[in-house]
Amino acid sequence: MSTTKSNAAVMSAFNQPIEVRPLPLPATLAPGDVLVRVTMAGVCGTDVHLHKGQLNVPLPLIMGHETIGEIAAAGGEVNDWLGNTLNVGDRVSWTVGMPCGTCRYCRFHRLPSRCLNRKAYGVNTPCDCPPHLLGGYAQHHHLRAGTAIFKLPADLASESLIGAGCALVTMIHAYEKMPIRWAESCVIQGAGPVGLAALAIASDAGARPIIVIGGPKDRLDRCKRFGADVLINIDEVKDADKRRGIVLEHTNGLGADVVIECVGIPTAVQEGWPLARDGGRYMVLGQYCDAGPVSLNPHLITKKELEVYGSYGSEPHHWARAIEFLRARKDRYPFHELITHRFSLEQVNEALDAVASWRTGKAVICPNG
Amino acid sequence: MSTTKSNAAVMSAFNQPIEVRPLPLPATLAPGDVLVRVTMAGVCGTDVHLHKGQLNVPLPLIMGHETIGEIAAAGGEVNDWLGNTLNVGDRVSWTVGMPCGTCRYCRFHRLPSRCLNRKAYGVNTPCDCPPHLLGGYAQHHHLRAGTAIFKLPADLASESLIGAGCALVTMIHAYEKMPIRWAESCVIQGAGPVGLAALAIASDAGARPIIVIGGPKDRLDRCKRFGADVLINIDEVKDADKRRGIVLEHTNGLGADVVIECVGIPTAVQEGWPLARDGGRYMVLGQYCDAGPVSLNPHLITKKELEVYGSYGSEPHHWARAIEFLRARKDRYPFHELITHRFSLEQVNEALDAVASWRTGKAVICPNG
Amino acid sequence: MSTTKSNAAVMSAFNQPIEVRPLPLPATLAPGDVLVRVTMAGVCGTDVHLHKGQLNVPLPLIMGHETIGEIAAAGGEVNDWLGNTLNVGDRVSWTVGMPCGTCRYCRFHRLPSRCLNRKAYGVNTPCDCPPHLLGGYAQHHHLRAGTAIFKLPADLASESLIGAGCALVTMIHAYEKMPIRWAESCVIQGAGPVGLAALAIASDAGARPIIVIGGPKDRLDRCKRFGADVLINIDEVKDADKRRGIVLEHTNGLGADVVIECVGIPTAVQEGWPLARDGGRYMVLGQYCDAGPVSLNPHLITKKELEVYGSYGSEPHHWARAIEFLRARKDRYPFHELITHRFSLEQVNEALDAVASWRTGKAVICPNG
Amino acid sequence: MSTTKSNAAVMSAFNQPIEVRPLPLPATLAPGDVLVRVTMAGVCGTDVHLHKGQLNVPLPLIMGHETIGEIAAAGGEVNDWLGNTLNVGDRVSWTVGMPCGTCRYCRFHRLPSRCLNRKAYGVNTPCDCPPHLLGGYAQHHHLRAGTAIFKLPADLASESLIGAGCALVTMIHAYEKMPIRWAESCVIQGAGPVGLAALAIASDAGARPIIVIGGPKDRLDRCKRFGADVLINIDEVKDADKRRGIVLEHTNGLGADVVIECVGIPTAVQEGWPLARDGGRYMVLGQYCDAGPVSLNPHLITKKELEVYGSYGSEPHHWARAIEFLRARKDRYPFHELITHRFSLEQVNEALDAVASWRTGKAVICPNG
Known about the structure:
homotetramer, alpha/beta, seven-stranded mixed sheet, six-stranded parallel sheet, 9 helices, 25% helix
């Protein structure tokens, strides 16, 4: 490699400005390791939570867990997760979660998303020791041997994959745990990235009608384009009972077969259980961060014979599905349109502010211009 | 019929003594209707709730929804639910729930336990109009055409069926919604009738280990006889964290594959979610009455990738399963031993007091001596 | 009613011309019975089998099990299956299967499609005793009390429902037993009515790619319009190994996640098992008639870890789903286009000939002009 | 290591006597590799098939895929599959299948039993190149890094694990794919090792009644001890229709909820489908070898709405379950009693003859005396 340093946006303290500084590139790569030149890094809402210290991650940290780049160097022959040979210059993305593969969740329960020793690039991979570059907000990203890398097809725009972001694989995982059956009615709580991903999968899987509860208006307009049948704007219908009334109107007076919570605020679950019909299914998908307890009535679970599911993170095969889906259905679900703001690496603090203030669709950082 | 009146225990007001008085027997029976001479009626904990007015049922009411009797008369040829011919003198029991068969839950969703017009003998069948005798606390019980009646096999003691009570069919329904797989670890919260039924099914289905959390000691001793591997006495281990510690000790430090809540107090659910391993399943079975909301953290559902299920009431095929199970496994699960107190019809108030004070195993009323 | 007779096409012997003759209309209708003036009756491929004596049905018989008509008279107040009030003049259809509701399959196993005493209009309902008119090839159709009747929405053309025919509900039932999950690859063997229904559901449920194996060319062209991604014309690719080769090309060299047999010829199953990937699922949907055994290797089931499913007939809720689907998706799946031939009642033999010779899309009889 | 050679039973040609000869022990062990001193190796019926050349495996081969031994040496620190540290002298067993971990079945479909590059110790691991000792019929067994090794608990006799053999893990895998639900009726075709394993799991999972069809009498007697409710001796009831008649007698005239084929002869599947009730489930478990096609009627699948499943091989977590099950339930399912014959390594041909002639319960080879 011609250079020996790579610029990275390093978070050294919570709630403080992030600073861009050079970090050493590896002199050599261990077998299976890969060095990627980052072309686009998504700024996820989770990064805002990380920056606020809400997830108690180790510092200093290079954030960025939705990243695309080009192979700069590799430690010997490396294949992508699906067996494709990787060459310098190939455009790739990868899963951020790195399960240990040996704990009881990884092995006995085949539940790697709950690995007891899970590492996630850009989340709990501090940058003070080599190989330093373990997050997307940097000119280069180091991928350890065993990372599930995906060579991206030429007809898939980087904007599509980053536009969908980790929200899409999270939803594909959730779908695997709680499939939406053809022709089921579906309520989606939340019109943000996760809600939009849920809408796209529900629509593509034949759910009908699909009712989205959320806001603001521009997000709901996008939901309309992505196939929502009914939109309930929380800025307009401020009373939860009235919102429930609208849901009942479209679901034979009983509630929806399936409700997917994509909000992240605990009270959404409170509002959500009564939106499902008796015998219906409820997915708690948005509560990735611990926002504390809320008052809930377990009698509803018994009486309504509800099924309530949770899903966390994703696995490599969900990424494979996501890439194939985005490629095949780009006309029907134009995730690339979500990207409204592009920032340089130096604008990292500006980028986080923009996401925190909900001013953006999706913001990305392009560390190499 | 030689007599024209039948004595019944009529609840005319909540929290007031129940009075035994004669009610008219039907002069003739419509086609399919059946009149039963009651030999044994279980006093369920739910009856105590009914008597306290906690479920807001219509009055006046003859309670009793776990009943066995002998066919006294029938309106023409009547078969039991499984197609057996019924004759005068046959010993029978029946399902108490009478779904309408025509609402959207009964038809489209095939969920008759959530029928929009559900009637249940002894619960919402007031006795001020004919046919009056629609509860078990009486010398006779009127069964409307269409009731799912079961002729009892000679080798099944009435004490077994009433000892198991509606708790067993409730659990069999719950098992159908959330099967316990062979060799799964299982925590049962509660050692009352529902907990004991859950234990019997879990044990018979090969769960291992089975950990029961409950009390008092005599109930736990019975759980031991019914196959529990580990007993946690809430009177001795008063700290919920310590109880969790014991569960973790027996479940590889992760929590149980399956947890079944059979307590009925909302805080049990609070304690319960952390008892399941990540990716585990949780059944909210005890919250039949609305005991109000409780503080719960939905983040746990997401992070633990939990599945939470509810189940309510039962259907006729669950009764058929229960009868067959009790007959076949009476040695391994001696439900007949639960019956510790027998009362005459006139002692109905005494019977309810005994159950309310948890002094009894299971109490029964034998209205015909 | 002003008339006392209704013309009906009566099959008195197998393989003989069917004769149109008047049969008595009921003088009065029992409570719940309905008399319908038939406007359109589908001629199903099964009717050809019936006419050839391949299903050994009782004679004399009025065939026709895909029928739409207008309410002519009713025995008192009658509701449709979903609770809508029925009035004279309402356009309706109905399920042809009439399960007994009391056998062990109906009750204990909740499998009414396998009712031990099942009656099906137009199939095993001979017309030599009252109420005679129990098939669709007649000016009037008698519906016994308890028939699942559906009032048709104004925006659903009769041609859509008859164009889809019993094939669609059969497939909806099959989907319920073996759901196709979002983004699964799917092979459909057969491009006839059942294959087209399978294609429509698979496409609407998000399967991808969908490969149809069948012929002739015009049927495959229609499959293209209905969303098939890959078409394999059996008239062109005559070698089964080559057909398998094409399937493997589109399924990562492994075979499809899901294969649905919609052919009805036993050798299709022989060809079909190797089209599924290991761990895949196979639905035997076309073998409604007994066409005898075929040479099959059960080792494939073990080695490929296949799941093989069967599905038979349908239930009322499948009809409800079908009606809603056809109404909502008529643009995407134009089943009404299938109807290529209309016949009068007198042309019944001509209609059967046309279907037998595969000259038609879908043929219908309009008994009242 | 003090010795440099280890005696092994080498199969150099099919259908020829196997010869015991010394093969080199490894001079050093690569990191993660383990050398085991074999104490007991099961002689599986599959080994007889291998010896007859029916599976076309590469030669020369050391057979033996059910093996227990003591750790003789290890390449550095090695843990067992569940995380226990392994020390010299520890008694261990291991899974024989070694999936590649990188093919589409291993990764995308999470179906390692169908790995495209699967190696299995004692099956397709020829012994002409180092590390030579890759089968159980030898004084030492070499385990490559990554093998799923299990340290055996002190209270589990080697005889229990080898008595259950690979049949038990095969059945545990099958159960995972097609669970037997509590209280289902169950027919098991075959009373050999796989049938006995199926019986043990079905019994422990609460199936009832369990009907075993097989022979000879001593095997059926053992089935009785393992919990079978009904035994059908094929030597006595030679007519398949009569056998079906007995099954119907015990299953309400309809057939069993679940049928498990554990015979390995294709005609068993022919006899088996009609033994399941409509809507029932059928597991093709015995057809591990390709014994060719048989005449089967796919119409039965459609008409009976059958579900037919296959399962092949096993995964490490099935071994973990098996070990735990055998330890916990040794009194109820005394698999150790199956071992009727012990042979030295030199008696290997005698051992295979004994198994081939069905003279044994289970035969084992003890290569170190």
